[in-house]
Amino acid sequence: MQSNLAKSLYLGLAALSLGAVATVSTTAQAASKAKIVSSKTLKTDAKKRNVQPNGKNALYSKPGTVKGAKTVASKNTMKKLASSKKSADYFRAYYQKTTNKGSVYYKIVSMDGKYRGYIYGGKKAGTFAGGIKKASTTKSAKMPANTTVYFAKPGKSGVTWSAPKYTQYKATKSVKDTTDYANDVLTVTSAIKKSREGSTYYYVTDATNSNVNGWVYSKGVTATKPAGATFNAATDVNVNFTASGKTVASTTLSGLKADATKALSTVKGTAVGNDATTQATDAWGKAALTGTGYSYVASDSSNKIALSNAKTGDTISLVVNQNQPTTSKFTFYKTAGNGDLSQAAKGIQAYTTGETATENTVAFPTVSAGFTGVSEATFTASDASTYLTNAGLATLDTPNYKKSNDTKEYYTEFKLSSTIAGTFGSSTKAFYTASEKTGTSPAKAQTTTGVNDYYTNK
Fold this sequence. Notes:
single chain, 458 residues, alpha+beta, six-stranded antiparallel beta sheet
């Protein structure tokens, strides 16, 4: 009996001991999970809370060491976002939680809103460490040479933003449609570029409509005044380009700043020589003189004087010089009819003495002179056709050739169909229709090619 009692006591104590161990184990596991001891919304300048992951930690639905935390984005995903070339993959931190173990977690959201959750942020509250670091979503950029601009394509694209898209969380369009502001003078006051994409944005203001301001993509504006814009005597200066007293082109210097205030002029007769001189660069003159065959030099002494004395509402004259004569070569094509390169057109080959002629080897004749005009001056399709006709190039022929098992003599005749307009100094195109004929070709086998080098065909 004593033996049985002893065994019963032993088994009872053993069971009690096991239960105690189980209780201790459960308590230890529960204690291993962290608890949140403080939570707060981050209220510092939002622009200073832009962050990017470094790939060291995953993103969770709750602080990662807290019970019930689920993975929102794996460590591998966060590593990919860390090396992303897209601004959309930057994050904004907006909430902070600290655990009883001293770990700080930040709630973050990607700029495009695709990812949102908690990430380990180190051991010091208010400092971005651990799995994230501060991000500079933009960098400074060079200001444009001309700070007076207009919307390049007024409408719903190329509009202004509160910040370049995805460089700040929830960046919004300031103006959703610029159609009504097509002729407004805009002033560029700042320039930045996206750190990841490298695209440049300008901050513009509109003196006429104060609500039209914000960041706009640099290619969304232009320094060229819209054709439909009216002359504003309070801000603009008319310009005539003259050569030997003759006006060869005209344009406008628009949205000029007053010499005294450096702000946009508001009164006719305001001295604006400094801004006029800044705007009237060689590149500006070249664009205004496109197709005329004349060149403008900003450093010309008379031009510098005229610009420096400019006042709003004035019409000033700037001196230009005619370019030197030059020639344009032709590339000859065989076409089905209308000379449209969007349809099938095949380049004709130039025949060289001694080669075997084919239906596509034209014996280009010698001409007395090339197609000549003032460099960079435009010519019309009619001008090109007239030259080809007067030079005896309206009809071209191949030397005779034979076909297998045929004793006849063949040649191909090409008739001028059409030409296109262009600029002297650049090659242009001529289109011909072809028809095969029998008999002796007008083109002799000893025809010399390339004497005047008026064609590019090989």
